[in-house]
Amino acid sequence: MEFQPKPVSELRTDLVPGLAQFEVMGAKESVTKVKKSPTMELKLMVTDSKDKKAMVFDHLYFGESSMWKLYAFCKSIGKEELYKSGKIDLSDIDGLFGTCKLGIKKSKDPESEYAKYDGNIEVQSYIVKEKSEAKVAKTDKVKDFNDDVPF
């Protein structure tokens, strides 16, 4: 397999901290390493305020002190009812859009195993929008591919 390599300096796209748009590209269930608490790992395609795009991973924790972020995520994608039901089918959120706030990761404990991620971009919060403002999934935009179109 052949390809045209890019200069190493062009390989990484650094996103700008601040408000950004995202699309959910995938999600999976996981558990935390230490406490074995359930989490949802999100794979997001993020577009920042300078129109730079990059894949960002975020974990939504189901602990009591982290429910605010799960709620904000659901509201951001226009699916508050998923939070209220207490059940999220991962296929229900795939392809949905929302808004988030990006920031630079900084560990509280520089000796922790997570300190290696310091300086990376992270989703600090999800911006809550009214349902009417949230974009719909790609599949909702096209009603029927075989519609009759006059030429």
Protein described:
The chain is α+β, with helices and mostly antiparallel strands and 151 residues long. It has one domain. The protein contains three helices and five strands; from the N terminus they run βββααββα. The protein has a five-stranded antiparallel sheet with strand order 3-2-1-4-5. The longest helix has 10 residues. The termini are far apart.
Q: Ends: how far apart?
A: 41 Å
The largest pleated sheet is described as: 5 strands, antiparallel
* Helical coverage, percent range: 10-25%
DSSP strand count:
5
Alpha carbon gyration radius:
18 Å
Q: List low-pLDDT spans.
A: 136-146
Spatial strand sequence of the major β-sheet: 3-2-1-4-5
In round numbers, the mean pLDDT is 80
Structural class: alpha+beta
What is the number of independent domains? 1
Order of helices and strands: EEEHHEEH
> What proportion strand?
25-35%
Number of helices: 3
The coarse silhouette is globular
Tell me the layout of helices and strands.
Blueprint: E1 18-31, E2 38-47, E3 53-61, H1 67-76, H2 80-85, E4 97-104, E5 121-127, H3 138-141
Antiparallel strand pairs: 1-2, 1-4, 2-3, 4-5
In short:
The chain is α+β, with helices and mostly antiparallel strands and 151 residues long. The chain has helices at 67-76, 80-85, 138-141; strands at 18-31, 38-47, 53-61, 97-104, 121-127.
Characteristics:
13% helix; 5 strands; 151 residues; 3 helices; alpha+beta; globular
